[in-house]
Write a structure and sequence with these properties.
Layout (H helix, E strand, L loop, with lengths): L1 E3 L25 E8 L9 H17 L7 E8 L7 H10 L5 E4 L3 H11 L5 E3 L12 E3 L4 H16 L3 E7 L2 H16 L3 E8 L7 H10 L3 E5 L2 H13 L7 E4 L4 H7 L7 E5 L8 H14 L8 H21 L3 H6 L14 E3 L2 E3 L3 E6 L2 E7 L1
Parallel strand pairs: 2-3, 2-4, 4-5, 5-6, 7-8, 7-9, 9-10, 10-11
Antiparallel strand pairs: 1-3, 11-14, 12-13, 14-15
Helix pairs in contact: 1-10, 2-3, 4-5, 7-8
InterPro entries: Leu-bd, Peripla_BP_I
Organism: Variovorax ginsengisoli
Keywords: Signal
Length: 375
């Protein structure tokens, strides 16, 4: 279920004001952080880059100031949606004092499972894009939210492509459902109508009924909230059906790995709105890619928004602990004071315990994304 890179380490970590618990002071000067990422299932393709990005951040921080003056070791835990022992594993580790914080890069459905098991007991940094609204004490959600992704993208595409009939397709859990609920209003603001929506179990491979519904409703645009392998399978079927001639697709969660799986022939008129693309020509990203390639070499896992988020999460946690060492971490979020940290997507401050970062709109061109707008 989990693998450690070394001996158990413990140290006190800051919790947000109102937290249900605070860990007692510990003598050891090395932190043990649980890195919860999917190692299988439909989101398993997020795993390699997430592990690599987190390891790069730990290597950098351990060479520099560390985590509040302390070094760190990672404990990798499978956080796939079908990981049956996830809650029991985390509960055992937390109760034994064997982990001091959690970096979570997984679906929101898994986040809810983790919070029910150990929420409020140790700090949790949740790193990927998500639906928004997370306010559990001790949880720092630093990824971009659906509102910040969808509202400007739907408006921009609405002005230029004039879609009237949108159809929403997602996996059946909280992120797609909440995203589509918000999108209904954004679509109306842009002059369109949501004419249909459907939700599919994780692991779906037959999309024939969904494709029939797209044809039947004469959709102009598809809002796509499938994840991992599911979005690959759907977009392949969509491309084979030739539907890109009649409608375009917009997603918040098609990353570089998924695009490679979809294939260039099936990616016509596919748009993605996100806070990070590997192709970003920014100073922060160019420097990040240089460090990433130097550390892992030519066979490094493909960079994408999910993977880089664990790099950011590690640096966020280090900045938080550094603020704690200076005596102000508990107020860092509550009083609105900015918390700066190293980020590949220029997310360098926190407002109300949520990161602020640019949002981009990109169009798939072959096997890469070309950024066409910054919001």
């Amino acid at each position: 279920m989990y693998a450690s890179s070394g001996s158990v380490a413990r140290a006190p970590l800051v919790m947000r004001p109102g937290s249900a618990a605070r860990r007692p002071p510990m003598a050891r000067q090395q932190l043990q952080i649980a890195l919860c990422v999917p190692l299988g299932g439909c989101a398993g393709l997020w795993g390699p880059s997430s592990l690599a990005s987190a390891k790069l951040a730990v290597s950098e921080l351990n060479r520099e100031a560390g985590f509040g003056g302390r070094t760190c070791r990672l404990l990798t835990i499978n956080a796939a949606d079908d990981a049956a022992q996830l809650e029991a594993t985390l509960t055992e580790l937390v109760q034994a004092g064997d982990i001091d914080a959690i970096i979570g890069m997984h679906t929101s459905a898994v986040r809810h499972r983790i919070l029910r098991a150990v929420g409020g007991q140790i700090p949790i940094v949740y790193t990927p894009l998500y639906e928004g609204g997370e306010s559990t004490p001790g949880v720092y959600a630093i990824g971009e939210t659906a509102a910040r992704q969808l509202q400007p993208a739907i408006g921009w595409l609405g002005q230029r492509k004039r879609p009237k009939r949108w159809f929403a397709i997602g996996n059946d859990y909280v992120w797609p459902r909440m995203s589509h609920r918000m999108a209904r209003g954004y679509i109306a603001q842009a002059g369109g109508t949501l004419v249909g929506e459907t939700y599919l179990p994780l692991g779906t491979t037959d999309f024939s009924q969904v494709l029939d519904a797209l044809r039947r409703t004469r959709a102009d645009a598809v809002l796509l909230s499938l994840v991992g392998q599911d979005t690959i399978e759907f977009n392949r079927a969509f491309g084979r059906a030739g539907l890109s001639r009649a409608m375009f697709r917009l997603s918040c969660a098609v990353a570089e790995n998924e695009l490679l799986g979809i294939g260039a022939d099936n990616a016509d008129e596919l748009y993605v709105t996100c806070g990070y693309f590997a192709s970003l020509d920014t100073e922060a990203n160019l420097a990040f890619k240089e460090r990433y390639q130097a550390h892992f070499g030519e066979r490094a896992p493909t960079l994408n928004t999910f993977g880089q988020s664990t790099y950011e999460g590690m640096h966020f946690l280090a900045a938080l602990l550094d603020r704690e060492r200076q005596g102000g971490a508990q107020a860092a979020c509550a009083d609105g004071a900015p918390l700066t940290y190293r980020s590949a997507r220029d997310a360098d401050q926190v407002e109300g315990c949520h990161s602020v970062a640019p949002i981009y709109l990109a169009r798939a061109e072959g096997h890469t994304f070309r950024v066409i707008q910054r919001f």
